């Protein structure tokens, strides 16, 4: 059983997200997808179960058939045809969408004509499955027999059109495979036929092996374009609710869990088959999440009934149980399901349109979607069909060449020719590379530069190769020069001492000299004008800093504070970039470091007996990365025509390391090579064993990710990387779509202080209010709402940027509707903190009171939405927490807590914050962003109180804030590792705001020391109300009052923390 896919919260690849445009008609016109003249889909071939079956079971001895009323009541002529639906099934809609024909006939149809064969047929059989036992139980056609019929079909096609034309049809047709639901639901759970032999993990392995073999056999007989659909949430179809959903007929979660486990395995296996099957397009289609979304939000899609089918009672009727003696609902369009197992045609027809619109509705206006849609459809068809030439005609090709500089993350073999021990041109390195040969890449297969090269190559954005050769490769051809090479050298860094310590590797300056020599060679091949064009339009990758931080600073014990060393590294990086720019480079992606403390070697060296991630090393990496990102923005403004992008690989890698199973990995602490604790380069050699399956390891050796991890980072749900790739493919507008929420967060809930408060204090007996002018002067309608700002606050902006809603209402707003609850509210209260004493002195809601309000909100949600939908909202929503600002700035600076040493008070604050986060988790929250404090010593009020006569930033207060933030970040990471299924992230807004304060003009601000309200020295809350006016242009001010940024400043901060 299978259904079309939406742009779900898990973006596996751009291809799989949007390939489903092919799998359902988006309207009723013939041939909606217009293929270019050089792209052909001569036929569509379908295999599997009842989702695709168009009548093959009609003439076999089985009870699993449907060639009688009421089936087919909405089909052409109202006749039953053997389709398990009221009308068309996905195989029909697919051929209709591609303009191949109106519907897909069954291969066993006695009325089949030769012309039908040439444009495709269906071999699927209702109730079949990957497990050979499944079709035996139901007496239907096994997958193996479907393959035999396909072989017979090939013979018939050859007899009609000859060998050559038949070969073309077979190799260029589209193959769709849908199976697995009947294995899980019927064979395993209902019939219990395999439960004594296998537990669920073992049974899904059996299914996977059969599915893999089926695809391999398809490939052997000539199929090249194969789409395999995942299993859906089978526990939510009406029959399984009846059999295993209890008295209230809820979704049977154990069925769904089995489906999810199978899907995760199937996805990885198909990726592997695609890589290892030349000239193939084998695509995994995730259909689990989109159907679940339809089921949980059925009313939003216009349906009235989701837990029963239209036929009979709708609880169990399917196949022969749904017959002419059963009444049917008067309007199937009101039902998600036709019978107790299969959706209505209406679901098939609207699902993909609604799913795509859902992904873009959260960020882009409907009009923009309409403009993009045709281009997206054509693009995905082209990706699926491999037409790179046509893609270039679509304007996809942005980069004529790719160049890489830096270290082993990008090195593709330059060290092979150097007198250094830092090499990897021997086994077991390269075991999964083309031909299983070592090439000098520090991995089991491709490295990140290769994978980006491959992405651009597949997109038609690069020329004639799909791997990036090393510049020092003696076999380098002129053709390679034209489309780019790699200059990177493993072991190198921004500090020349790093390269020297590694024994003869190429410094960054040496790499730049090699690039200079390359330009001379390129000019001799394509001429000066051609060379200049290639260089100025090429994409440049840089990965440097890993070895400086991990090795040079920590191993060689550089005798200086790390922030000072970081400043030196950034200076050297800027000099390198300026050198590149002078040689013609304009488009540069600078990669962050990896989370160095979590590399296997880092764990071994500094992670203690338990080999945990070394937080000190990760903290150093974060400092370097933050300064690198800031410096790129600043440098870009001084280099006309340049495009310098910071690419954060630290965060997606850390996410994989902290959630390996969710990302499809088994081991995140060890490398695959040897013991996996220290082996790298010459210590990872042919004398040490390596793990049998590197794809299940995050790391290949003790310092380098596996190819699977690199691929996961590039194509995972880490939106920053996906947005960059999308930008290459479809330009800025579509990149925005790919980078946004995509349906990940149904709601947003905010807790904490005035940074997120949207009006709760209006309804409290407190002086800490802002529901009066001039607050709100730039808000919608120019009205004060209780937000401590001239306009929107971060909770509003994040909700808006993620496409959830334009503003986030306050929970205590008496005008709050139940509908508002379903998309989120703010519980935050201006003046509160982690310390209950802070809230008490400010008359604000403590975090514990906010938690009580949240619990009350959950109860209201359950009453309004139902238990199941409320649970979904709570577990999938995004939660924001901002607390600590008032504890440090107010409570600690008063006699109330000042007698406590600040480090101890900071620990107490972090302890209270951790307790609150645990309570959130216990209440069902899973996705939480914990905001740092602001740079409190630089707030106008902080400057006035503690900045001396010149009102400078107070370093003392800022240090306290930094100490608290560091402890908070560590606590959040620790909770993430201990709370199963959580996705807790520390969000550093301290650095973002400090960067604005230190570089106001680059962000468009004129005043950083004063607030816009009154004198800007002390006015806040009531004193801002009494002030004599406010500045004419708040957008030129970083701060609105003495304690809060302006909406404009918040916008800059939010844009820096949200996916680009």
UniProtKB/TrEMBL annotation:
Alphabetical list of SUPFAM superfamilies matching this protein: SGNH hydrolase
Entry keyword Signal: yes
Keywords: Signal
Keyword Signal listed: yes
Signal peptide: 1-31
Protein family membership: Belongs to the 'GDSL' lipolytic enzyme family.
Name of this protein: GDSL esterase/lipase
Organism: Arachis hypogaea (Peanut)
């Amino acid at each position: 059983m299978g259904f079309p896919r939406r742009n779900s919260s898990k973006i596996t690849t751009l291809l799989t997200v949007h390939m489903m445009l092919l799998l359902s008609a988006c309207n009723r016109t013939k041939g909606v997808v217009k293929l270019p003249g050089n792209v052909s889909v001569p036929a569509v071939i379908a295999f599997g179960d009842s989702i695709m079956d168009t009548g093959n079971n009609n003439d076999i001895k089985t009870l699993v058939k449907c060639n009688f009323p009421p089936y087919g009541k909405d089909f052409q002529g109202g006749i039953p045809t053997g389709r398990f639906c009221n009308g068309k099934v996905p195989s029909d809609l697919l051929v209709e969408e591609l303009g191949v024909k109106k519907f897909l006939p069954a291969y066993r149809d006695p009325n089949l004509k030769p012309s039908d064969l040439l444009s495709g047929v269906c071999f699927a059989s209702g109730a079949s499955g990957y497990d050979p036992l499944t079709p035996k139980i139901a007496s239907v056609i096994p997958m193996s027999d479907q393959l035999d019929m396909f072989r017979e079909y090939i013979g018939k096609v050859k007899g009609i059109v000859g060998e050559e034309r038949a070969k073309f049809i077979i190799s260029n047709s589209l193959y769709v495979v849908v199976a697995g639901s009947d294995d899980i639901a019927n064979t395993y759970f209902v019939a219990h036929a395999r439960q004594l032999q296998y537990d669920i993990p073992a049974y899904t392995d059996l299914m996977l092996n059969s599915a893999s073999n089926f695809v391999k056999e398809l490939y052997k007989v000539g199929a090249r374009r194969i789409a395999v659909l995942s299993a859906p949430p089978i526990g939510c179809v009406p029959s399984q609710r009846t059999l295993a959903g209890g008295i209230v007929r809820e979704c049977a979660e154990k069925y769904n869990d089995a489906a999810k486990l199978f899907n995760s395995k199937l996805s990885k296996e198909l990726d592997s088959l695609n890589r290892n099957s030349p000239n193939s397009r084998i695509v995994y289609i995730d259909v689990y999440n989109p159907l679940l979304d339809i089921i949980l939000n059925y009313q939003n899609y216009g349906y009235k009934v989701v837990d029963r089918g239209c036929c009979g009672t709708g609880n169990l009727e399917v196949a022969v149980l749904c017959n002419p003696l059963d009444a049917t609902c008067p309007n199937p369009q009101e039902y998600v399901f036709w019978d107790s197992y299969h959706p209505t045609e209406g679901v098939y027809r609207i699902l993909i349109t609604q799913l795509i619109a859902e992904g873009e509705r959260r960020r882009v206006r409907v009009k923009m979607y309409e403009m993009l849609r045709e281009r997206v459809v054509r693009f995905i068809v082209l990706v699926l069909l491999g037409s790179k030439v046509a893609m270039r005609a679509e304007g996809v090709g942005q980069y004529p060449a790719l160049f890489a500089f830096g270290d082993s993350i990008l090195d593709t073999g330059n060290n092979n020719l150097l007198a250094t021990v830092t090499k990897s041109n021997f086994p077991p390195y390269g075991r999964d590379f083309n031909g299983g040969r070592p090439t000098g890449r520090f991995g089991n297969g491709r490295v990140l530069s290769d994978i980006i090269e491959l992405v651009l190559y597949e997109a038609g954005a690069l020329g004639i190769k799909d791997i990036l050769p090393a510049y020092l490769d003696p076999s380098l051809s002129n053709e390679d020069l034209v489309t780019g090479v790699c200059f990177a050298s493993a072991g190198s860094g921004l500090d020349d001492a790093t390269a020297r310590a590694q024994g003869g590797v190429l410094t960054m300056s040496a790499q730049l000299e090699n690039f200079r020599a390359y330009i001379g060679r390129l000019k001799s091949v394509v001429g000066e004008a051609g060379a200049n064009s290639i260089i100025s339009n090429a994409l440049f990758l840089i990965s440097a800093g890993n070895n400086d931080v991990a090795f040079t600073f920590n191993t060689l014990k550089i005798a200086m504070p790390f922030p000072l060393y970081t400043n030196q590294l950034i200076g050297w990086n800027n000099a390198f970039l300026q050198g590149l720019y002078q040689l013609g480079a304009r488009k540069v992606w600078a990669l962050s470091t990896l989370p160095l403390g979590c590399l296997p070697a880092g764990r071994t060296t500094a992670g203690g007996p338990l080999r945990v991630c070394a937080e000190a090393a990760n903290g150093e990496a974060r400092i370097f990365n933050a300064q690198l990102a800031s410096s790129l923005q600043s440098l870009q403004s001084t280099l006309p025509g340049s495009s310098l992008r910071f690419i954060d690989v630290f965060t997606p890698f850390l996410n994989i390391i902290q959630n390996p199973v969710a990302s499809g990995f088994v081991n995140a602490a060890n490398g695959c090579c040897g013991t996996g604790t220290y082996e790298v380069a010459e210590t990872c050699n042919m004398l040490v064993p390596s793990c049998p399956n590197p794809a299940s390891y995050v790391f290949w050796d003790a310092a380098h990710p596996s190819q699977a991890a690199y691929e996961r980072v590039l194509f995972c749900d880490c939106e920053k990387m996906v947005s960059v790739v999308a930008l290459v493919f479809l330009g800025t507008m579509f990149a925005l779509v790919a980078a946004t929420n995509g349906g990940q967060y149904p709601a947003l809930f905010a807790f904490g202080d005035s940074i997120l408060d949207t009006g709760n204090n209006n309804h409290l007996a407190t002086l800490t209010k802002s529901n009066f002018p001039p607050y709100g002067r730039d808000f919608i309608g120019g009205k004060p709402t209780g937000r401590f700002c001239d306009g929107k606050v971060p909770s509003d902006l994040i909700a808006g940027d993620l496409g959830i809603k334009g503003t986030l209402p306050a929970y205590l707003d008496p005008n709050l509707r139940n509908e508002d609850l379903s998309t989120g509210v703010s519980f935050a209260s201006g003046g509160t903190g982690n310390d209950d004493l802070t809230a008490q002195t400010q008359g604000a809601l403590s975090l514990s009171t906010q938690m009580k309000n949240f619990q009350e909100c959950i109860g209201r949600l359950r009453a309004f939405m139902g238990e199941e939908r409320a649970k979904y909202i709570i577990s999938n929503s995004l939660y924001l927490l901002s607390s600590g600002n008032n504890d440090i700035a107010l409570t600690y600076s008063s006699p109330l807590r000042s007698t406590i040493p600040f480090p101890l008070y900071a620990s107490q604050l972090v302890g209270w914050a951790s307790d609150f986060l645990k309570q959130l988790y216990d209440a069902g929250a899973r996705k939480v962003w914990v905001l740092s404090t602001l740079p409190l010593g630089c707030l106008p009020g902080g400057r006035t109180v503690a900045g001396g006569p010149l009102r400078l930033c107070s370093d003392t207060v800022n240090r306290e804030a930094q100490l608290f933030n560091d402890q908070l970040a560590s606590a959040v990471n620790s909770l993430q590792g201990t709370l199963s299924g959580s996705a807790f992230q520390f969000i550093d807004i301290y650095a973002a705001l400090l960067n604005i304060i230190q570089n106001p003009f680059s962000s468009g601000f004129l005043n950083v020391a004063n607030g816009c309200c009154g004198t800007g020295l002390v006015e806040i809350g009531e004193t801002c109300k009494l002030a004599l006016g406010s500045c004419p242009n708040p957008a030129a001010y970083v701060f609105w009052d003495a304690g809060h940024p302006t909406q404009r400043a918040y916008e800059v901060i939010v844009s820096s923390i949200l996916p680009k």
